[in-house]
Amino acid sequence: MKLTITREQLQEGLVAVAASVPAKTTLPILSNILLEATKDGIRLSGTDLDIAVSTTVSASVDQEGAITLPARKLVEIVRELPSAAIRLTASGEQRVTIECGRSKFRLLGLPREEFPAFPTVKFDGSWRTSSKDLQKLIAHVAFAASTEESRPILNGVLWELRPERMRMVATNGHRLARMDVPTPISSYPPRRSSRSAGCSAPMKRSRSPGARTISASGLPRPRFSPDSSRDRTRTTSRSSPVRTTSRPRRTRRRSHRRSGG
Fold it and tell me: Do 233 and 225 form a contact (C-beta atoms < 8 A)?
């Protein structure tokens, strides 16, 4: 594998993918980012087996190939490099040389075959919505999701797609947040999906202003693809127990007059 890419392009791809790489894992391969050099550019992929993110950025590829490299080290190296062309060369024994100006680094990776395979994403019959609306929903309800591992289903955000609206609901059993945004879709069948609140973080950090295509066949395992070359895959948890008609019940306080003895 041999390619040349600008520092800005590589950093943009790494920022998008690094959000899905787990901080701690018992599987060493999950700490790595998969780099695949093709005629279309370089495709970067990362996953923690719950979230899977992949993006393709333009690059001048001299020789196609694939390898996985430690995500944390790669991000730190690229962040400190000057704004110049970066040369990546993979040699035998899963070794990669990174050259930029006077700087030169060597990283030891793992074989591409050890990296988890991503499911095939088809967007036939999909519908479109703006990333602004999606990020708005996430920002308004994700805070209410539970962080306790004893009730994993409450770690998710209930996501409803209706012909006239798109809704998200989250609760931790004590507080509840719900928000609706109108959608211009008139022929989309109603769907419900409960997705992890942690899965929402990478999407909320995304700065892409373009529309995202959401596969109808992907729910309750939604796939996302903006107008650019970035593809995102999210797996979801089980059906959410939150009912869309949920409202906090008002309780009446009764005052008891204490009789004197």
Answer: no
Q: 167: domain CATH number?
A: 3.10.150.10
Check if the beta carbon of residue 53 is closer than 8 Å to that of residue 17: yes
Cβ atoms 29, 107 nearer than 8 A: no
CA distance 93 to 255: 77
> What is the C-alpha separation between 28 and 21, in angstroms, rounded?
11
Token duo for residue 224: 């996302």
What are 21-32's pLDDT values in tens digits? 998 888 999 999
Note the pTM of the prediction, 2 decimals.
0.71
121-146 per-position pLDDT tens digit: 666 666 677 778 888 888 899 899 88
Q: At what angle do helices 131-141 and 197-205 cross, to 10 degrees?
A: 130
Burial class of 4 by CB neighbour count within 10 A (0 to 12, 13 to 18, 19+): middle
**Whose CA is closest to 130, among 243, 251, 25, 224?**
224
Domain that includes residue 167, residue range: 127-234
Please compute the mean of the pLDDT values over residues 9-26 and round it to a whole number: 90
Alpha-carbon gap, residue 209 to 243, rounded angstroms: 31
What integer pLDDT is reported at residue 182 of this predicted model? 87
Per the structure, how many domains does the chain have?
2
Contacts of residue 37, Cβ cutoff 8 Å, sequence gap at least 6: 1, 2, 3, 59, 61, 63, 64, 65, 66, 88
Q: What is the DSSP letter of 116?
A: P
Task: Indicate whether 21 and 75 sit together in one domain.
Answer: yes
